[in-house]
From TrEMBL:
UniProt protein name: DinB superfamily protein
Organism the protein comes from: Marininema halotolerans
Family annotation (SUPFAM superfamilies): DinB/YfiT-like putative metalloenzymes (SSF109854)
Gene3D superfamilies: dinb family like domain (1.20.120.450)
Domain of life: Bacteria
Pfam families tied to this protein: DinB_2
Listed InterPro entries: DinB-like (IPR024775), DinB/YfiT-like (IPR034660)
Residue ranges occupied by any DinB-like domain in the UniProt entry: 3-120
Amino acid sequence: MQTWRLIPDNYLDWRPDQEAYSFGEMIRHVWVGDYEYLHILKTGGLDPEEDIYQNVPITSVEQEIEYSHPHRQQLLDWIRNLPPEQLIEKSVARPAKGYQRPLGDMLMRIAYHDSVHIGYFKQYLRMVQLEQPNMALAYNEEW
């Protein structure tokens, strides 16, 4: 969220090219991912039936943070309450995507997904010459 807050709202539609996410779309993609991942993890691999906020316009960074907060918090709470043995014993099967993985592997992939998008986000910030985040502070940020 600290990184997201570096974007002035008038940059939300900026994208490096026509095929890339805009700043706003990338923020939405990451936090909707929290909702989708939690559903997938809880159900053992089923995709959510609804596409939340699909028709809600992206209007401000703070609004996106407000939308994102409960989904990130629910995902983190669910992970914190996992018995450690489930990281190995429980599987997440996604036949439509062509894989089945241990829960622990899936959690690592979620973290990887977020870090990839933070990298893209930082590159976007460089391209438009906006302030860069202090990643040490961002890592320790409390929700």
